[in-house]
Amino acid sequence: MIKIERYRVIIEVLCRHYEMSDLDLMTLLKNKECKYLFLLLLSEYGCLEKEKLVSELIFSSNKSINYNLKKAEEKLLINKQFRDNYSILEKTVKND
């Protein structure tokens, strides 16, 4: 699967999981947990292109992406519910 397809699948899975349309992605990413899950999934599947995220989404710089990714990894280790949500989304992305 090429990066664009993976990226699209990740967005669709995340939106389906939170019962929102693809058009509401910006609203969805304002939620910290959703933003963290999004970044972790992009990182896991090699789709984390920081320049595109800065220009197209709510991230202001590469530094903010790195900070949010670090926080997401910390939350993944600490929070069981977050870890469960991540594993559900990861399995769904693999199946799509």
Strand content: under 5%
End-to-end separation in angstroms reads 10 Å
Largest sheet: none
What is the H/E order?
HHHHHH
- Give start-end ranges of low-pLDDT stretches: none
Number of strands: 0
Shape call: globular
Provide the helix percentage. Answer: over 70%
What's the alpha carbon Rg, rounded to whole Å?
12 Å
Count of folded domains: 1
Structural class, by secondary structure, is: mainly alpha
Q: Tally the helices: what do you get?
A: 6
Mean pLDDT: 86
Walkthrough of the structure:
This protein has 96 residues and is mainly alpha-helical. It has one domain (3-95). It is built from six helices and no strands. Helix 3 (32-44) crosses helix 6. The longest helix is centred in the C-terminal third of the chain and has 17 residues, at 62-78. The termini are close together. The model has no long low-confidence stretch (mean pLDDT 86).
